[in-house]
Design a protein that fits this description.
single chain, about 130 residues, alpha+beta, Murine Class I Major Histocompatibility Complex, H2-DB, Chain A, domain 1, five-stranded antiparallel beta sheet, 5 strands, about 30% helix
């Protein structure tokens, strides 16, 4: 649990390091199935505008470690996470354990099967069929 908090704080630090001037909220989304992963970082500015910006690559390895470390026998692990930081330093993290991510690409059926082998849990079928 302590290591999970350290990883989450490290991710927050990485995201804050990428925050442009005038930001009000950062919303980072990450989804993973086996070796497939996708992420996005949306910046909402104090003036109400928003844009997607490049994500710090250092976050990816931390999230892979976090995903593996949060695996629980019989439950599996999460598929996606939304990490939100609101200025000045409030943050929230929401994990999705139940719904397969809505990728912009579709991992192969083998990718979903590999994920279930790596992180066995109650979900027994791939959304691909």
């Amino acid at each position: 649990m302590i290591e999970q908090q350290e990883i989450l704080q490290g991710i927050g630090g990485d995201l804050l390091g990428f925050a442009p001037e005038g930001w009000g909220r950062l919303r980072y989304e990450y989804s993973a199935v086996a070796k497939y992963a996708t992420d996005s970082l949306t910046v909402e500015y104090s003036n109400g505008e928003s844009e997607m910006v490049d994500c710090p690559v250092t976050v990816l390895s931390k999230l892979a470690r976090l995903r593996a470390g949060m695996y629980q026998e019989g439950k599996g692990t999460w598929f996606s996470v939304e990490y939100t930081i609101e200025r000045p330093s409030n943050y929230s993290v929401d994990f999705n354990y139940d719904e397969y991510p809505d990728f912009t690409f579709r991992p192969s059926p083998e990718g979903f099967a590999d994920d279930l082998k790596t992180f066995p849990g109650p979900r027994s079928s791939s959304p691909i069929g």
